[in-house]
Design a protein that fits this description.
By secondary structure, this protein is an alpha/beta fold. It is built from 15 helices and 12 strands.
């Protein structure tokens, strides 16, 4: 799981992506499918492609959209980049019959979540966007009847959507991004509407009804998900890192995480820190580890367990599935926890809760925290920060997060 929206990717996306979109727009007839009858294998299913390059949280949020398409008999192919591919194999395992595997013993039994519908008439395929696929895209090997680009701003996703031979393409028009040039029809992206609703509304634009679709994502509990370690105490997960461009704008001060861990350990919980290998090289991680080593980290037999960069995706999900609570910044861990039916405390700084907040079957178990400062919402598309002083995160106190966490933990 690497950082999305890195400076290099942003540069290529802006200065290469826009000219490519214009060129592809001019040569649009060449990107149409070479066949008229669209079938999925021999079953006569309408073929649909969904493009999404980055962000685990976004992959969670598109689950109701994928489910809605499958329930209505579409043959859906997900074109996913990087870690999204492996993650989608986990959360959609009940459709692909490719359940995640772990040899580690279960530690705490996690309750079953609100199961996603198992009966459907469609088919689901998941493809990884890598160099080999890029060559196949350039050769016109992939053909769909409908293509949906679920990206909010990345022009590279729109370019991929155009390289897939399709009858119609759908996506979003976001101010100053120009990616709508790729689409036959588009929706104006609303910064105050939740992304999950955006995705459902986009397929509705193509005539796919979603009146009875869930308004929250679900990851069914599929054994043998398990935490890869044995803990003597029930544990709480800390997702401290956002893993995105200018990540410090979304992150809480390391000393506050340390103060919160002490309070929760005194209540009898172990604390597990999760993150990617890239997160283990950040200043925030180094600062937190120094805080841990500078003061006793064992209270009432509890401990702080550092698993940053040391888990697979399946183990990462398993750790969350077996936890008592997840305390997170605005990142994919909060969305995963909500979809698993876990208790969540999520801190939001520059991004609107109304648009990016975690969702789940039991909304009473999810607490979304945002400081009351006038500049809230300065990040509309996830990378367009317009300040260098993240007072939005600084104004969230340890006392607030601990109080909310305590109440959730003691709520039956």
């Amino acid at each position: 799981m690497g950082k999305r929206s890195s400076a290099g990717i942003r540069f290529i996306d802006r200065y290469v992506g826009i000219p490519l979109l214009i060129l592809l727009r001019m040569g649009r007839p060449l990107t149409r499918p070479l066949f008229r009858k669209n079938v999925c294998t021999a079953e006569g299913l309408t073929k649909v492609g969904i493009v999404k390059i980055s962000a685990l949280g976004d992959t969670v949020l598109m689950e109701p959209t994928v489910t809605a398409l499958l329930r209505r008999g579409y043959c859906v192919t997900l074109y996913l980049g990087g870690s999204n591919y492996g993650f989608a194999k986990i959360i959609f395992a009940h459709y692909t019959h490719d359940a995640p595997h772990s040899d580690a013993p279960r530690t705490h039994d996690a309750p079953h979540t609100h199961d996603a519908p198992r009966t459907h008439d469609g088919k689901l395929h998941i493809k990884r966007l890598d160099k080999k696929m890029l060559l196949r895209l350039l050769a016109g090997r992939y053909k769909e009847q409908l293509v949906f680009d679920l990206g909010q701003w990345t022009r590279i996703e729109a370019v991929i959507a155009m390289l897939i031979r399709a009858n119609k393409r759908y996506g979003f028009r976001t101010p100053h991004q120009y990616k709508h040039l790729a689409f036959d029809a588009y929706l104006d992206h609303d910064p105050y509407k939740h992304e999950l609703r955006h995705y459902l509304d986009l397929i509705a634009l193509a005539g796919v009804p979603h009146n009875h679709s869930r308004a929250f994502p679900v990851i069914p509990m599929l054994p043998p998900w398990a935490a890869p370690i044995a803990t003597s105490q029930p544990y709480i997960v800390f997702a401290m890192f956002s893993g995105t461009y200018n990540s410090y704008m979304r992150e809480w001060l390391p000393r506050r995480w340390k103060e919160l861990s002490i309070l929760l350990q005194q209540d009898g919980f172990d604390v597990i820190i999760v993150g990617t290998e890239g997160d283990s090289k950040t200043d925030a991680y180094g600062s937190f580890i120094r805080f841990i080593h500078s003061a006793p980290s064992t209270y009432s037999g509890t401990q702080v367990i550092d698993l940053v960069g040391r888990t697979t995706l399946s183990e990462f999900v398993g750790i969350i599935a077996n936890s008592e609570l997840v305390v997170s910044v605005d990142t994919g861990a909060a969305h995963i926890a909500g979809a698993l039916g876990k208790k969540v405390v999520a801190m939001h700084g520059a991004s609107y809760i109304e648009r990016w907040g975690a969702l789940g079957a039991n909304g009473m178990q999810i607490a979304l925290i945002q400081a009351d400062v006038p500049c809230i919402g300065c990040s509309s598309i996830g990378s367009d920060y317009r300040c260098n002083n993240p007072i939005c995160m600084e104004n969230i106190s340890v006392a607030t997060i601990y109080s909310i966490s305590y109440n959730l933990l003691n709520r039956v």
